[in-house]
Amino acid sequence: MVTIRLALSALAVSLGYYLGANLGFILWFPPAMPSVMWPPNAILTATLLLTPPRRWWIYLLAAFPAHLVAELGVVWPASLVLALFATNCSEALLAAVLVRRFSDAPGRFDTLPRIGAFVLGAGILAPFLSSFLDAGAVATLRGEFYGTVWRARFLSNVLTELTLVPALAILVTAAPAWFRRAPWRRHAEALILGFALLVSGIVVFTSSDFAAIPGIPRSPLAFLLPLLLWAAVRFGPGGASLTLLGTVLVAISAVTHGYGPFGDLPARDSIHALQILLIVMAIPLMCLAAVIEERRRAEQALGERLRFEALLSRLSAAFVHLPSHEMDEAFETWLKRLGEYLGLDRLILLRVSGNGWSVTVSHSWTAPGAPAAPSGEPCLSNGTNWRQLLRDEPLPAPGRSDLVIPLVAGGRLLGGLVFDGGARPQRSATLPGPEFRLLAEVFAGVLARKETEDALRASEVMKSAILTSLNTGVAVLDRDGRIVAVNESWTRLTREDGAMTDVGVDRNYLQVCQRRAAQGMAAANEVLAGIQAVLAGSEPSFAFDYAAGAPPAERWFAVAAVPLNRPEGGAVVSQADVTERKRAEAEAQRNRQELAHFTRVSTMGELTASLAHELSQPLSGILTNAQAAQRLLRMPSPDLVELRDVLADIVDDDKRAADVIQRLRDLLRKSELSRKPFELNGMIHEVVRLLGSDAVIRNVTCMLELHPEPVFVIGDRVQLQQVVLNLLLNAMEAIGESDDGNRCIVVRTGSELGAIHVAVQDAGPGLTDGAERRIFEPFYTTKPAGMGMGLSIARSIIQAHGGLIWATRNPERGATFHLALPVNGQVPA
Ligand code: ADP
Fold this sequence. Notes:
The protein is built from 24 helices and 16 strands. The chain is α+β, with helices and mostly antiparallel strands.
């Protein structure tokens, strides 16, 4: 197909060359060389300007036989004919090379730089240089005068190049489209112009009798100017070059026949005068036409751009507030609108999947009658694979009908816009790169927003799934406490709670709490204050447990609130049924007390000797006094005063024994944790007294360094007594192990730094490395018969009182155990 086209065009060039040469001969004044106009060179120049350099040799070769046929028929010798072909070719080649060097579009004459390059390169320089060769050949081979030949050839070739080359190039390239597309009014105008030019040309150049201006015998050349200007202004470079060519042909045929404004001059001079005149007219006219064309195109491009920008702004306005789920429909509409506007076959929106290089068609529009998209690997209708385009071409090549603009937002490739123009010329080709960039930016922005909104919606649908699956009730409050949203568990729990049944969406949670508080629900007051504090930002969070209903159907609920991290404020309130947890806690507490009681009982076992000794004293006192009383009563006149004393002693001893038993009963009593204020020093005295006999047996002294003032503690006296008892027993056991002379225990009480301190210091073997912590763990013991529960229970008792217990190693020997208890029940720092 390409070869046939090439062969046909070569044939056309050959024919053109032959006809051109013959026309040249018609315009020839023998014997002088050369002709007034010599078209073959201009025909070759136009051909070379319109074809790629790699094919030039074909056209030059095609012209050769035409040259031989045309010129060998004339009387010239073969050597001259060959030399002239060489000079003709040299002119065309010089012209083509020079114009190509300086013009961005060698076959076009529609801007000032392009016409400038043409006039200078093809119009002046090429004829100027090649004429030296030509004149040399003619002068050598025909003996003509070099200077005369050079001048004649130069002028004739300048005129031909200037007038014929643009006319030919425009006729071949732009004229067919103009004839097809231009409205009939333009055709009519062109016809009128052509006719007017012909008439004026004939009048100006041929009529020697017709005097348009009285007194002046010939019509002036200026008569032609308005028509040439008309052509240049209204029909651009094409119109200008064709009218110039017409004028030149009329003028030359007139002059060669002895007519025209220069009729009085000798033939050669009048021809040169005409050539110079026409050259001088042609150059500014061509420039004028080019400038006007340039303006017109700039105006057109501006108009096109404005229309496109208006379309773009409508496009971005259409998407700016569009929620992502409505975008699909809008994409369809806008792809159609843009595709129609740009005159495309197809406009396709591609999406690139998140991580990989996977491209899918997101939306597409196909013009009615355009070929359907090929199946399989996505391709443009001309076969180009768009993955390739997306990868290789970051920006569209202007003027191409198949282009893919990558859609990039935030440095990430989101997709592409495929402009498939098919085979038809379309509007997108006239739009410059920046316009496409804008279009790409709008689409990329929309895609990025859609992606974000879709991801957000997807995450919300997850989020809501989590909320639904939660057993905990969750309610979202706005800044004023109004419930904005709740999950299913919230509705269920507030129903089960019984107190908060009407707490649903749109209700004000704070008002509900206020009402419940007014109805006497104490917990509502706490919840109200806590949530108000979170909403106001004065507290980072709030948590509170409350009981609803009465035992045994008592239910426990935990309510918590955290602020919502958003500018408009608000809070998330959660409510959970913690009845099971509360039951487990109560059970654990009961178990702890059982264990504490058990250890107390077993401690008492250890104190048997001491207790027996404590009791034996008053009992033996009672026995002795009772026997004395019996003796007194057996006397005939008993001494009643002595008897009263003896009985009083018996009562005292009995009281003492009862006291011992009462203290034992207190310790062995199984009771719930109570919190009452009691005096600490007194309690310690009591424990030391209870251990008194034991201490004697173990040969241990107990020194008390108690706070001089009474020290009051709030808590369970029996349980704290158990702790002190335990510490003293451990201390005595530790001293029992050591053979050192110091067998003293020091018990101190004091009050400092907002806490009440008790310290039990011994001079036993002390604690091994790292034992300070481990001794408080359950079942940690170093004694063969020990259980390892004493200190662990002591710790849980102290912690239940909000206090702390710890052990330190003494600087010299032994260990000291410390208790810190809150003053007035408050936790020490
Ligand atoms: P038990 O007395 O049954 O071993 P405890 O919990 O009362 O259980 O004590 C745990 C361990 O702590 C003891 O076995 C002992 O090793 C260590 N301990 C307790 N008091 C002292 C003390 N005053 N001096 C040295 N070690 C002690």
